[in-house]
Structures are given as structure tokens and as C-alpha cells.
Amino acid sequence: MNKLYVLIVALVLIGSTFSCTGGKEKITPQEPDEYDVFLLIGQSNMAGRGTMLESDKKVIEGVWLLNDTAGIEQAIPPLNKYSTIRKDLSMQQISLADNFSRKLHQLTGRKILLVVNARGGSSIRSWMPAASQGYWGQAVHRTQQALKYGKLRGILWHQGETDSENASSFYMDSLKVMVAALRDTLQAEAVPFIAGEIAPWHVNRERFNPVIHKIGEQIPHSAWVSSEGCTPLRDDRDPHFSRDGQMLLGERYAEKIYQLIYR
After folding, report:
1. Which of 178, 81, 89 is nearest to 139 (CA)?
2. In sequence order, what DSSP letters do the residues of 68-137 get, joined into one string?
3. SS3 string of 50-64?
4. Greatest CA separation found in the chain?
5. Quick one: which of 150, 154, 146, 124 has its CA closest to 136?
6. Alpha-carbon gap, residue 136 to 180, rounded angstroms
7. Contact assessment for residue 260 and residue 252, using Cβ atoms and an 8 Å cutoff
8. What is the C-alpha R_g of the chain?
9. pLDDT-based confidence at 158, cuts 50/70/90?
10. What residues contact 209, with CB distance under 8 A and at least 6 apart?
11. Does residue 199 have a pLDDT over 60?
12. Of the candidates 129, 109, 196, which has an alpha carbon nearest to the alpha carbon of residue 161?
């Protein structure tokens, strides 16, 4: 009888920690000073190349940005401006981070803290933990700075245009190494990792996007989002998304994250 009682209590405690949907973490109410932290990394489309309007240069309600002094401030685009590995500041425009954070706050009512550390033109080889460029290390360092404000809830990745011509098994193998190292170092084993398709007009889309589609089979707690319906910055020779394309892509990242950890 005592053993049965202990078993019932244990099951109740487990149920209070995990939801009934495959052990998904139940998001509890936030403390006043707590933020949901998201790391956003990749190349130029994550850095943002969509033309920024004057109307975009306003505070995004409910969203904060890790700045260059390890502090936080209300988020005002461009959101890659504090990246420690970015290209020239004038190149930082609207990215998917804008509508991702805006939409996620609207869906959840939670305070969102972004760590945006992208680098235009970067290959996945440059994002390996041992790569000389140090991009991986900078992403880890800045995320660790943000963790004093809240908990890491997700990692968003948009990269691949540089590697799309020869996206064979090396790409997924490299991605697996990078993600595993991030999760291990940040003690975030089950934190969702979300990747996006490259542009549907890109010359190498049929080589690269099917690789990304298999991410859920290769990397635990991962998923991908579609770029279908997004529009180019200039023409079909341009790998960059327009402002509208970035907004659509950001919304899709937000919806995916919402489905995975908030519902």
C-alpha cells in the first residue's frame, strides 16, 4: 500500500513538471525580472538585409535586445546591430528577428530577450566550435551574458546560401556537431533548434532545402520553417529576402516556437 502511494505521488510530481504532449516543458508564469531568451544566428538573412522603413525604427513592444555592454534595452531595429561578428552597421536592416519577437510576444504575453549574433556571408564551417573565426564562441558568450536575465527557450538558425551548391551530408553532419556543442555548453539539451529554408527562387533551393527538411530526423528537438511565399529583396538572382519576406519568415519561426514550447 505504501509503495502504491509513493508511486502515485511520484507520477503527480512528474505531471506537474512536464505537459502531456511528449514531455514538453510547461511554461510557468514569469517573475517580474525574468525574460524568455532566444539566440538568433546565421548569415545575412538572419542579420537582415530587408529594406528598413522609418516606421520600423521604433520600440518593439514586449521585446528586449542584449546590447554591447552585456545589458539589455528595449528592442529597436536593426536587431543585429550589437552582433560581435557583424559586417558594417549600414548593412544591418530588417531581419526575421523583428516579426519573430513581435509575434511571439503577442501570442504569449511573455517578455522576449533576443541575442542576435549573425554574420553575412558565413559558411557553416565558420560556425563550428573549433573554427578560427570564433563565431560559435561568440554566440555562446553572448548567450551566457543573457542568461542572467532569464532562461534560454530556443535557438533560431538561418544559414545555408553560402553552402547550398554542395549541400551534401557534410552540411547536416556539421549542423549536428554545432547544435550538440551549443546545447551541451549552454546546458540546454532540450531547447528547440529551428532552421529555415533558403529562398524558393534560389538557384540551389532543390539541393539545399531537402537537407533542411530532414532536420527533425537528425537532430532531437528540432524543426524547420518554409520560405514559400517570401519575396526577394531585388530579383530572383538575389538570395536575400525583402522586408515583407523577412516579416513572413519571422512569423513562421514564431508560430513554430509557440507550438513547440508554449502550447
Report:
1. 178
2. TTS-EEE--S-TTTT-TT---GGG--B-HHHHHHHHHHHHH---EEEEE---TT--GGGGSTT-TT-HHH
3. ECCCHHHCCCCCCEE
4. 72
5. 124
6. 12
7. no
8. 19
9. very high
10. 197, 198, 227
11. yes
12. 196
Sheet with 150-158, strands from edge to edge, namely 72-74, 63-66, 112-116, 35-42, 150-158, 193-196, 222-225
Helix (H) or strand (E) holding 164: none
Q: Which three cell numbers stand for residue 144?
A: 551566457
Nearest to 93 by CA among 54, 133, 125: 54
Phi-psi region of 142 (alpha: psi -120 to 50; beta: other; left: phi over 0): alpha
Rounded Cα gap, residues 167 and 43, in angstroms: 16
User: What is the share, in percent, of the chain residues with pLDDT greater than 90?
Assistant: 86
| Domains in the chain, CATH or no CATH each | 22-262 (3.40.50.1110)
pLDDT tens-digit series, residues 126-138: 999 999 999 999 9
- Mean pLDDT, the chain, rounded, equals 91
Backbone phi, psi, residue 102, to 5°:
-60, -50
Mean pLDDT, rounded, for 43-53: 97
Cell numbers for 193: 533548434
C-alpha cell of residue 201? 527562387
Residue 259 near residue 230 (C-beta atoms within 8 A): no
CA distance 83 to 105: 22
